[in-house]
Specification:
The structure holds two protein chains of two kinds. Chain A is mainly β. Helices cover 0% and strands 52% of the residues of chain A. Chain A contains no helices and twelve strands. In chain A, strands 2, 5, 6, 10, 11 and 12 form a six-stranded mixed beta sheet that branches. The radius of gyration of chain A is 14 Å and the shape is globular. The radius of gyration of chain B is 13 Å and the shape is globular. Chain B is built from no helices and eleven strands. In chain B, strand 4 and strand 5 form a beta hairpin. The interface between A and B is medium-sized, with 24 and 30 residues.
Chain lengths: 118, 114
Amino acid sequence: AQKITQTQPGMFVQEKEAVTLDCTYDTSDQSYGLFWYKQPSSGEMIFLIYQGSYDEQNATEGRYSLNFQKARKSANLVISASQLGDSAMYFCAMRDFTLYNQGGKLIFGQGTELSVKP
Amino acid sequence: NAGVTQTPKFQVLKTGQSMTLQCAQDMNHEYMSWYRQDPGMGLRLIHYSVGAGITDQGEVPNGYNVSRSTTEDFPLRLLSAAPSQTSVYFCASSYTVTSAYEQYFGPGTRLTVT
């Protein structure tokens, strides 16, 4: 069965420092995508970054990068130069691109709550 | 372009009441889905639709019905509300089921069943 594991329930980081949020996944499929979402206290789900299973380069989006290690089945999110506005819950998610898997549902981890200290 | 909209934002129901959570998107997305978010459990798929007239069950479908009469709308119906359905509900959409990019999420509906 497919599964996402985020082992850090909560993390603290000093403003302007970099932080890595861990995510490991389990799937037997070859074609899948990995996503990171940010959920601030206001509740909305904000897409941050995407990595496809066949992408050879790690994805980057501004201050966000995804450290993709396929053999280890890990997809860690790296936030550089943390800002106070980065304080939020962060979810790692996976989607496989096959119709039989409940329409390609997103499978979420339990989240990591990041607090940025001034 | 409003993206994915959900109404209401907050709702309180008594046990046994029924209601419909509305979801609409204006991006001509084929794929729409409903998730619920409970504390400590991440998001779980309730129902999904791969196009108008086609719906199917997700991971936690019991107590919920859906229909998809148009591409734009995907309402979620609670048949007889129970306290276990207290949760935050998110509607999401993407261009197709195999879209290699993100699903767009609505702002969520916070439902409390007393």
